[in-house]
Write a structure and sequence with these properties.
Low-confidence stretches of chain A: none
CATH topology of chain B: Immunoglobulin-like
Number of helices of chain B: 6
Helix content of chain B: 25-40%
Strand content of chain B: 25-35%
Order of helices and strands of chain B: HHEEHHEEHEEEEEH
Number of strands of chain A: 2
Oligomer: heterodimer
Structural class of chain B: alpha+beta
Radius of gyration of chain A: 30 Å
Number of domains of chain B: 1
Radius of gyration of chain B: 20 Å
């Protein structure tokens, strides 16, 4: 009787510890291959291209204005030249400010787009961990705390499949 | 005979287990605030605290009943339950460093924009979808300013309560609204809502 009871308790403890599981995901692989990241990247690039084209066309129009001035400056009076040069300088400065604002906007946009993707991935991993009974899921990215881990603990592909499936649904 | 008794015993047992005990308002609020019950979700992103809580319509029925004379309370109960039951109530809370989110923008150019957004513009930043990605109609929302006296700003959203039982969960999406959190999603399971004990009236 005692032996059976000990056996049952021992088996329960063993099962309990078996369930306390750890795993890791390669975050670089996950982020690179997650459909949500690919789409976010594409959307971001499309936006940046439009902004860049705006800046380029403004720059081009300023260059044309400068060239025209250089051609016509000989026939201008001193006052006209001074006025035109001041106008061109102002435009150049405004263009520089606009360019800088666009760069900052692009950086912010990228940061927000990435954060949205990170939020989705974190939500999924959390849910995955709970449903699969994991105690810890580590994120390995090549520069983090995990220097070595047995491949048997790598759940990247399984997580990636589930994540992409959830994203496409 | 003993077999019949056994069936009777199990019948009562099933009935006893399946009956949900009604809760007082305080007990119900305690139940709602317990994260294990799945009706309150919280996230911390870039220092911003974002919370979402399901609010059962019973809470608003009870609140409404308190403003009604005792003599007609009983007769009004069913009508009010039906009226409030048509809606799904979700409360979003936003804070930073244990202060209202609006307070963190004081003395910046974003302050008035954020107040304006919370009061009038949240329709553009919130989407509720079912498991099959059907959008649930946002009927209305309410932001009550607390003038820096709370630890977070609260906005109550009122959605149409239709066809939700056919879904396993619903997803509340808070789009990027100037807090640099990116899009934040919360999932609330329908089974957690269905397990909610009723309020004692």
């Amino acid at each position: 009787m005692v032996i059976i009871a000990t056996g049952i308790i021992g088996f329960s403890i063993w099962t309990y510890f078996q369930q306390r599981d750890v795993a890791y995901v390669d975050t670089n692989v996950l982020m690179e291959n997650f459909s949500g990241m690919k789409i976010a990247k594409k959307d971001y690039e499309a936006k940046v291209t439009v902004w860049k084209n705006n800046v380029d066309s403004l720059m081009k129009s300023w260059e044309v204005e400068l060239k025209t001035y250089e051609k016509e400056r000989v026939s201008m009076t001193k006052k006209e030249r001074q006025l035109k040069e001041e106008l061109l300088r102002n435009k150049q400065q405004q263009l520089g400010n606009y360019q800088q604002a666009i760069q900052e906007k692009a950086m912010k946009e990228e940061q927000i787009a990435t954060q949205s993707v990170v939020n989705q991935v974190n939500d999924y991993i959390k849910e995955y961990g709970k449903t699969h009974g994991y105690d810890f899921i580590y994120g390995a990215n090549g520069t983090g705390n995990i220097v070595y881990a047995n491949d048997a603990y790598d759940i990247t592909q399984d997580v990636l499949e589930g994540l992409n499936k959830e994203y496409s649904n | 005979m003993p077999k019949r008794l056994l069936y009777l015993f199990f019948g009562f047992l099933v009935l006893f287990v399946s009956c949900k005990r009604s809760l007082t308002r305080t007990e119900l609020l305690e139940y709602l605030n317990a994260p294990d019950n799945g009706l309150v979700k919280e996230k911390q992103i870039n220092g911003i605290h974002i919370g979402l809580q399901y609010k059962p319509s019973d809470l608003y029925v009870e609140q409404h009943l308190r403003a009604i004379p005792d003599s007609i309370r009983k007769s009004e109960l069913d009508k009010l339950k039906k009226q409030y039951g048509e809606n799904l109530y979700l409360q979003l809370s936003l804070g930073k460093n244990n202060r209202e989110i609006v307070s963190s923008f004081v003395n910046t150019s974003m302050h008035s924009a954020m107040v304006n957004r919370l009061a009038f513009g949240m329709r553009d930043f919130v989407v509720l979808t079912t498991e099959s990605r059907d959008t649930i109609l946002l009927k209305d929302y309410n932001y009550v300013p607390t003038y820096g006296l709370s630890t977070n700003n609260k906005i109550l959203f009122v959605f149409e309560n239709n066809n939700l039982n056919e879904s396993e969960y619903f997803k509340f999406q808070l789009k990027e609204m100037g807090l640099e959190t990116g899009q934040v999603n919360f999932k609330i399971k329908i089974k957690d809502i269905n397990s909610l004990p009723p309020l004692k009236f």
